[in-house]
Amino acid sequence: MAASERRAFAHKINRTVAAEVRKQVSREYGSSPQLCKRRSGSQQVVPLTEVVEPLDLEDFLQNHPLDAEPGPLRDLMEFPADDLELVLEARECRTTEPGIPEEGKLDARVRDAIEIYTEDWVIVRRKYQSLSSSYNPNTSERQRERQKGLVRQVFELDSAGDERMGSEDLDDLKHCSASLDDTPRGSWASNIFDLKNSAADSLLPSLLEHTAPDEIDRRNEELRRQNRPRDLLALYPAPDEDEAVERCSVPEPPREHFGQRILVKCLSLKFEIEIEPIFGILALYDIREKKKISENFYFDLNSDHMKGLLRAHVAHPAISTLARSAIFSITYPSPDIFLVIKLEKVLQQGDIGECCEPYMVMKESDAVKNKEKLEKLRHAAEQFCNRLGRYRMPFAWTAVHLANIISSAGSMDRDSSDSESERKSTWNERKRKAFERASIGDDACSFSNFRPATLTVTNFFKQEGDRLSDEDLYKFLADMRRPSSVLRRLRPVTAQLKIDISPAPENPHFCLSPELLHVKPYPDPRGRPTKEILEFPAREVYAPFTSYRNLLYIYPHNLNFSSRQGSVRNIAIKVQYMAGEDPSQALPVIFGKSSCSEFSHEAYTAVVYHSKCPEFYEEFKIQLPANVTENHHLLFTFYHISCQPRPSTPLETPVGYTWIPLLQHNRLRTGPFCLPVSVDRPPPSYSVLTPDVALPGMRWVDGHKGVFSVELTAVSSVHPQDPHLDKFFTLVHVLEEASFPFRLKDVILSENNVETELKSSVGALRLASPEPLVAFSHHVLDKLIHLIVRPPVIGGQIVNLGRGAFEAIALAVSLIHKSLDGAQDQRGHSQLLAAYIHYAFRLPGPEPSPTGVPPPPPVQCATLSRAPGRPSSLLLSRSKSISSSNPDLASSPCSPDEEVTRILACKGVDRSHSWVNSAYAPGGSKAVLRRIHPHYSADLKQATDRGPNRASSYLEGSSSLPATSQPRPTGRKLLHEELALQWVVSGSTVREAVLQHAWFFFQLMVKSMTLHLVLSERLDTSRKLRFPGRFMDDITALVSSVGLEITARSHKDSELAERLNSSLAFFLSDLLSLVDRGFVFSLIRTYYKQVATRLQSSPNPNGLITLRMDFTRILCSHEHYVTLNLPCSPISPPASPSPSVSSATSQSSAFSSHVQDPKVISMFELSGSFRQQHFLAGLLLTELALILEPEAEGVFFLHKKAISAVHSLLCSHDADARYAEPEVKARVAQLYLPLLTLVLDTLPQLHDFSESSGQRSRLASVPDMDIDMDGSSTISPSVAMAIAGSPLPPGPRPSISQGPPPPPRTVSPLAADTSRTLLICALWVLKNTEPGLLHHWTSDLGPGQLARLLDLLHLCTSCFEYKGKKAFERINSLTFKKSLDMKARLEEAILGTIGARQEMVRRSRERSPFGNQENVRWRKNVTHWKQTSDRVDKTKDEMEHEALVDGNLATEANLIVLDTLEVIVQTVILSEAKEGLLGAVLKVLLHSLGCTQSALFLQHGLATQRALVSKFPELLFEEDTELCADLCLRLLRHCSSRVTTIRTHASASLYLLMRQNYEIGNNFARVKMQVTMSLSSLVGTTQNFNEEHLRRSLKTILTYAEEDLELRDSTFAEQVQDLMFNLHMILTDTVKMKEYQEDPEMLIDLMYRAPQTFG
What we know:
Layout: H1 3-13, H2 18-29, H3 57-63, H4 72-75, E1 84-89, H5 108-118, E2 121-126, H6 140-146, H7 156-162, H8 167-182, H9 188-196, H10 213-225, E3 260-271, E4 278-286, E5 291-292, E6 297-299, H11 304-308, E7 325-330, E8 337-346, H12 352-361, H13 371-388, E9 392-401, H14 402-409, H15 414-424, H16 427-440, E10 453-462, H17 470-480, E11 493-503, E12 511-512, E13 518-519, E14 530-533, E15 550-559, E16 571-578, E17 590-591, E18 599-600, E19 602-604, E20 620-623, E21 633-641, E22 652-661, E23 663-664, E24 667-668, E25 671-676, E26 706-716, H18 723-737, E27 742-744, E28 747-749, H19 754-763, H20 770-775, H21 777-789, E29 793-794, E30 797-798, H22 802-819, H23 831-840, E31 860-861, H24 898-908, H25 911-914, H26 938-945, H27 951-955, H28 975-985, H29 988-996, H30 998-1015, H31 1029-1049, H32 1054-1071, H33 1077-1095, H34 1101-1116, H35 1121-1124, H36 1158-1163, H37 1168-1173, H38 1175-1188, H39 1196-1215, H40 1222-1229, H41 1234-1242, H42 1250-1258, H43 1277-1284, H44 1312-1328, H45 1331-1340, H46 1343-1359, H47 1365-1373, H48 1380-1391, H49 1396-1407, ...
Parallel strand pairs: 7-14, 12-14, 30-31
Antiparallel strand pairs: 1-2, 3-7, 3-11, 4-5, 4-6, 4-8, 8-9, 9-10, 10-11, 12-13, 15-20, 15-26, 16-19, 16-21, 17-18, 21-22, 23-24, 25-26, 27-28, 29-30
Helix pairs in contact: 9-58, 10-52, 18-19, 21-22, 22-29, 23-30, 24-31, 28-30, 28-31, 30-32, 31-32, 31-33, 32-34, 33-34, 34-38, 34-39, 38-39, 38-41, 39-44, 40-44, 44-50, 45-50, 46-50, 46-51, 47-50, 50-51, 50-52, 51-52, 51-54, 52-55, 54-55, 54-56, 55-56, 55-57, 56-58, 57-58, 58-59
């Protein structure tokens, strides 16, 4: 398109509405030079806005056998045979023993729980997925690892600052200085003497030898190839992580939930007097939540003497009860958490106050004075211990405010350690830590990182018999926080309790689980253990159970015996777990407390002396048996304890009984109870009834009223304790065991009604409480999947629950997502659900039987005739069978479900998108094989017969046929087929729930498909035959519908559209490893067509483009991306010649005798053949081409996104060990050859890096060290003149092209960082592409295009110029990094090249790719002044490393430019425009020599310069005098370098230049004049110039002339000597003119002599 047309089009935008603009853009795209270009006499190919029809990859590979030998190159061509593997990974067990019930007759729930908690993880692994950029990203940390071992490049810029010179140089300088002082001032003789006595640099050995040009080129190339870094992009900053939409992480395996853990060690307990044993209890309480948040920990710190008093009651204590340290878990840290310490003592006569009095009055210092009292007290205590040793009474209590302990102990340098660890941690870990910090909140305290503290608690408060409840305790604790606490005014019980509080170690030794199992590591079973204390979280914790746990806690609250007759005052309650009604059936399942047996048959509450209405604070912990039956119950026996020994009075007098049956309607009974108490012993068979039933002949306390309050709490991974979950599991187990009839509450389940109950139960799962639903999520999902795949059989008939189970899964997943809103990864996936799929999910039941095994007995479908119908629109225009196993299909196709018909009509199979022009269309040449295809293999036929329950089996026949004539389904289905089918036909509500979390169902389908292939040994089957056609139809309909949802919601619900888009992309990426790859490509094409159609009418086209780019980037992150693009197969030219993308200017080749190779041309263009064969690479580069199109206004934020996608992919190739071989990487680079053409077309839009460096390069001097070298803080001359009001100078970077200047740009250029990234990608392609291929390509380019390529190389040289160490130090001193992009925009604003409207539109578009959905003007993550994520205060070593990497990058980038220049030189020799092109090549070379370069590059660059001048001397001596002047200036500048290597090569180049000039005309007047003028400019304008270095170079040139035997008989040596002496005189005089600025006489003398020297 001509420039005037473009301007007209751009001008028209201002006068049309948005819809017209989009239509116009769509129309113009087809004729845009970058989107669809023509060659004269040829037809138009598919424009870039349309997706070409992909190859049938499977057919292509079958018809084109691989010809490479086994090795890396062959591996590049095909998927590895071991790509997919099934791994059975042993589940990690925290304890040394599993802790599951012993084998035997187990309850179905227990059996399921044991299976779920012990079976191995089933992991489907793509072996090479770790090489994908999704799982192995190129982060900054990884880049630093790859940068190890870099060689430090030597730069003049750096060496000038530190004056690092060898001793030889210093000695020579001293010698030269001395000679100057000794000779007469200003004499010619002294000048000759000084130069002849100067030291010369070493000579290049083969410089004066006659060598063929080809041999010189070969030698130079060989030297350039040595010690080059293999990976270019390892030297470039890592890709932006914000754009990494493909990033994935393997979920962590399900583990037991723990909060922040603290270790509490009880060290000692000492009272003023020691008369009796005292026992302690620790527990955590949260007073804000008014909740006890841990179970009790019991400890015994008594001396052996005190323990001996109870020897009669405790035979031999278990070691587990001797623990003195405990680990508490705190999920929700809070400043309101207290560690409450309660003390108990042996029951004795007297109330609590009387018992505490001696401890409050007597002091240890008064022991002698109170000796008799103490003896009396000890004697009484001994008697009570002997008689009442099994009973306890409340004694005292205190509390420790944990927040005070942590604040006083202080944190352990959290800030520094966190910052260091966050830098070293992975990206996912940093995300998780950020989430944890956000979830804790600002006012919360952390218990995970504080200094250990040792406390001595001295004040205890005596217990009050009528204030023992938790409610009273909360009041006391709240009062303790007040300054004027009532408790502080009370007289305390003096004691000293020493405890240590510290963060718990990660893997403590000698630790017992709450079930008293040994936690690994447990070195010695005889060591004193530490107990893990079970947490009762303050709020809901959403975590799945991962181990068997079945605990019951009993909390007696209070008893009211005020109306009980008789002597009932010292009441103790005995608790027993009864397996039957006989006293001998009490089970030893009650956990012991301290210094006792591990388990006991019974336990007692503490006794409150002389109280008929006691309160209790006890906690009894019970290990529930595996099989809890209806006879199991808790028996509470109330005793009056006789404290005073009397002959006729027994110690225990039973005064009441009550009980709680533990199982009711197959549910564990928990919660609060207010029970009546019977005076009489319960009669036989009482256990199956509750005490609320008035049994005949029994007497009850207070007229059968509830007088005893008790609460039961279960922590069980077996019993859900949710009515909906309980009912669901019960019904499933009843069906599994066929235990009919079964009583469920008031319903008697039989075969007639169980189906109805089960369906209602499945539907009611959505009403389940979130916490138990999450805790039992693995159970629920396993059972629902089992119902889908193995529907239950009742009375020989199948109960189809597929639709109901699918809906239940969708709603359960939705509920789990909501509950775990904070625990999601960067893509919004619930880690719990992702871990379930990755580790726990397996195909239920055994796999289908292999050939030869008889099928199970046939059954008849029970619900087929009464189910709603599947619409005939699912047939996808086929008359053959439809997708299989929808269980709820009608037998009559004439009564379709209207809802499904509407779905499929609006979203299903859009034929304009999915099947048009597709080889995979029904009846097309490559249609997917059907289940009944006659050419099916026997193996495939058998596989399809395994699931004959699919509806198509009997929908194909007439519904009027008798049941016996219909196929008999086996009831076995494949999960992936069912999921696809149910999704397609789901109703609107369920579909919405599925779409919200589509990733879950996609991943579930993928794992099911993989397991099916592995377990049925079908991986060796042809991909076309792996899955039946009906399933592929369902996949097609599913992908089409999801694609339409994405495009429809991209504007109104962008967040959901984004999630759906990435989920679909990952799904298709997974399918590429499983199914027919050509089929997947056709699905990708369908998606692209849907997006293209929607773009024409979308109010937010940029949002859709963003989604499509993310979609493409995810697909291209596949680990076998290169193989999928067929990198090694030759591209066949299309049948009809297709127009070339690169022939926009309609130029013919620059070589009249050269015939263009269409194959080579198509490799460098986004031609139809390229995009068809390299399908994914074509999509990626097409996206880039569309975004970089100049007419595509308003896509500034997309530039970075598109270029970042290419950059990330190239980085992954560089880091991939599979592509390390140069031959292999050259094949990979072929996939990106069109990138070179794209960059050439985009050249006018790229940021102009040559502005600052160009000014510097025109100065024939060493850069001043005091000048800002990074270009970011200097003002360009054009801007300065604009500020001053002067007319603007011409642009800084004219094109090297000889043609007319290009029209002015009407669009804003790419940002500096974006342009730099695009250029490094182009250099990567140039570096890794085979030189012969580049030679073919450049041979096909016209002169104008070659000039563009040279302009590109010129820009690359400026872009990657070395900044110097000081530049990094200046950057480090800034708090905010200044963006080059912002500088460019500021200049635009000053120069007036961008309007206010354009700037406003650009800012609004950049703010969000989804339009104006966020009503904000500023967002932190898009502002250019946001704080850098890197640390500002970098260390010296880090800055040194950055300078090292930048130096290597600059060197390698310029060497790639040099390599390309050599290729161009070889190409243009045959060109008609040879002279102009060679001049342009020399300009680029001179520009590179004028930039800040390393010694290594200058060595090779000067070698190339010498070769170029030797082959084409007419460039300098017959054509452009400016080139000769520039070359002389640069050579003289490098002759004055501080670096010896640079001087050596510059001297050689300057000598050869004079020699070649002499050989042309027996003199070198031109060079002599240019060198003389350049020297004056060099010495006069350069700061910090050191003439000694140049003097050495002049001496070196003299030495060359003296040793040049070939020209010894000519006058050449004499002319060189005269020139050197003249140059030395100018050098000396100019330097002395600076020196004698204050000496007028000497200054005039020198100024008089200067013209004579020039003459």
